[in-house]
């Protein structure tokens, strides 16, 4: 094995994509579905008033209204069932297909069981990865540099080579290159080339790869990475019961591309020398950022279809046509690491949102109808808020209602909300209703959204006022350390800073007042920026309730 030169080498990046994920989650709940052609169908819209279907209820559907198909087992795909078919169409092409409807809650689809399963996968992967970046409900990019280096240091090269080659496709094999030629949409449908596995071809390509890798430390790390991914996939299956597919490369764009080449329950290694081979005929829309309008513009501007064809366009022409994104575009088409960002470690969500659309006759015509649906949206949002509190000890401090009207007019109204750790659905609903009223006349609402954002640590929320009380605010503490308070404040939500500032002054005033036996003073300028309920609580703590009348109203619009 060639010597390792840490630091100078590119990272080892893996990509995990769960196989027919919603079906897999349903199978883990109901083993009768194992091995059978089955599909998950959406909740049919316009079913207002019907009782909710909880995850544990009988959700198999044999007839009646059904939403479109959103996940298809590989057994059903082999019999012609595809996503987007209606349940009835699926039954026509495959009469034995079992259709399972997604659960519902608060009058709409409830995807919580799938989200929880996706989170469980991320948690498991995180135990062995340097960084885990959730890319969607069932896709995760992972930085496995550390785990790969550990294997290189602890296992014999021959053992690693044997383990990797027995489990991994090479991205420049004839089979892989063939699979890379299909378009984005057929790749998403699960085309037949993507699903075939030829183990003799696996062995052939690998002999050469292992020989060359003997003098190539980058390749050796990636080969070790393939073993890490194989072991992680086995662990996901044995622990959670889900199979997944994997990719390994030096960046997450290539790792994802590799991952999509062979599914289900397979993995692909994309070594640097294989990138040009694979990308040559790769349809441009398979690359991230090129699946939509921008990709179309690139194709039509230069009359190209594949990444290889784009690389044939003279560089100055590409840069002239796309001065902002030209460099990135060329790096992406070449599979260069500079086109992909590093794997970002898990990020906490910035907001929790829930929404619903009401097209055609279903559009909402009165404030009462808007109120009704705000109530429906509130239930799920409240549940997710409680999860944030429990899992991350964070609570939102802003509520936003957004409405799209018939005339395509989009209105948003925000208000501070102070839920602390035990906020109620009623609190969310009342604040949401207040926002909706501030939006003015609402008729012909075609989409309604409700979100909670500006997450702040629980201890900074006013539910913990008494804890905060008498404690130095962050601003005051950093002043003592000689830091500029505003440097720290940049990273903090506005409300938390205001609250901290308010308390610092109030606490200082209280300390001073206890010496002088005088009532503490509050900085009214700071206090007035806070929502009324926080103002009230602060003033109650300070015994200054009567002053409240002087302060500003409860509605602090952040940006309307
Ligand atoms: N999904 C959805 N609506 C869509 C597409 C997907 O609700 N239009 C859900 C159901 C899928 C899950 O997201 O199970 C993951 O989507 P994928 O595109 O990754 O597809 P699958 O995991 O179902 O299949 P594959 O094995 O091809 O990745």
UniProtKB/TrEMBL annotation:
InterPro entries named among the record's database cross-references: DNA/RNA_pol_sf (IPR043502), DNA_pol_Y-fam_lit_finger_sf (IPR036775), DNA_pol_Y-fam_little_finger (IPR017961), DNA_polymerase_eta (IPR052230), Rev_trsase/Diguanyl_cyclase (IPR043128), UmuC (IPR001126)
Cell compartment(s), UniProt: Nucleus
Keywords for the protein's UniProt record, in alphabetical order: DNA damage, DNA repair, Metal-binding, Nucleus, Transferase
PROSITE patterns: UMUC
Ranges for domain UmuC: 13-291
Gene3D superfamilies: 3.30.70.270, 3.40.1170.60, 5' to 3' exonuclease, C-terminal subdomain, DNA polymerase, Y-family, little finger domain
Name of the protein this chain belongs to: DNA polymerase eta
Organism: Durusdinium trenchii
């Amino acid at each position: 094995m060639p010597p390792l030169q840490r630091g100078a080498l590119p990272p080892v990046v893996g990509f995990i994509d769960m196989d027919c994920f919603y079906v897999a989650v349903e199978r883990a709940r109901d083993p009768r579905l194992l091995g059978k052609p089955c599909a998950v169908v959406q909740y049919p819209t316009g079913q207002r008033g019907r009782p909710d279907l909880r995850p544990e209820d009988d959700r198999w559907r044999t007839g009646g209204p059904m939403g479109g198909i959103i996940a298809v087992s590989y057994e059903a795909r082999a019999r012609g069932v595809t996503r987007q078919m209606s349940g009835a169409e699926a039954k026509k092409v495959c009469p034995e297909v079992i259709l399972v409807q997604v659960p519902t809650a608060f009058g709409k689809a409830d995807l919580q069981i799938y989200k929880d399963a996706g989170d469980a996968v991320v948690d498991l992967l995180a135990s062995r990865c340097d960084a885990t970046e959730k890319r969607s409900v069932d896709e995760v990019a992972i930085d496995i540099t550390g785990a790969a280096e550990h294997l290189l240091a602890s296992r014999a090269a021959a053992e690693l080579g044997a383990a990797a080659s027995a489990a991994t496709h090479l991205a420049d094999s004839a089979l892989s290159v063939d699979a890379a030629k299909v378009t984005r949409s057929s790749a998403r449908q699960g085309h037949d080339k993507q699903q075939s596995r030829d183990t003799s071809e696996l062995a052939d390509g690998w002999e050469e790869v292992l020989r060359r890798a003997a003098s190539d430390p980058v390749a050796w790390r990636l080969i070790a990475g393939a073993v890490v991914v194989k072991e992680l996939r086995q662990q996901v299956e044995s622990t959670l019961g889900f199979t997944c597919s994997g990719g390994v490369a030096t960046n997450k764009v290539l790792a994802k591309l590799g991952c999509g080449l062979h599914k289900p329950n397979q993995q692909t290694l994309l070594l640097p020398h294989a990138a040009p081979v694979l990308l040559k005929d790769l349809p441009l829309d398979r690359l991230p950022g090129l699946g939509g309008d921008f990709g179309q513009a690139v194709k039509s501007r230069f009359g190209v279809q594949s990444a290889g064809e784009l690389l044939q366009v003279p560089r100055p022409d590409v840069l002239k046509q796309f001065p902002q994104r030209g460099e990135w575009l060329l790096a992406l088409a070449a599979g260069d690491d500079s086109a992909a960002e590093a794997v970002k470690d898990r990020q906490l969500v910035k907001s929790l949102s829930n929404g619903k659309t009401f097209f055609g006759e279903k559009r909402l015509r009165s404030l009462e109808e808007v109120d009704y649906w705000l109530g429906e949206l509130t239930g799920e949002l409240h549940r997710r808020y409680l999860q944030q509190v429990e899992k991350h000890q964070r609570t939102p401090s802003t509520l936003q209602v957004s409405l799209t009207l018939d005339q395509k007019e989009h209105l948003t109204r925000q208000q501070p909300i102070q839920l602390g750790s035990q906020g109620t659905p009623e609190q969310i609903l009342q604040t949401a209703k207040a926002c909706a009223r501030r939006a003015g006349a609402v008729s012909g609402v075609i989409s309604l959204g409700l979100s909670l954002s500006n997450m702040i640590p629980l201890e900074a929320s006013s539910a913990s006022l008494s804890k905060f009380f008498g404690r130095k605010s962050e601003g005051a503490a950093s002043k003592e350390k000689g830091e500029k308070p505003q440097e720290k404040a940049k990273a903090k939500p506005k409300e938390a800073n205001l609250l901290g500032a308010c308390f610092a002054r109030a606490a200082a005033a209280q300390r001073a007042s206890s010496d002088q036996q005088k009532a503490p003073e509050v900085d009214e300028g700071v206090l007035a920026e806070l929502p009324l309920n926080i103002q009230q609580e602060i003033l109650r703590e300070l015994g200054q309730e009567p002053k409240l009348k002087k302060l500003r109203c409860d509605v602090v619009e952040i940006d309307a």
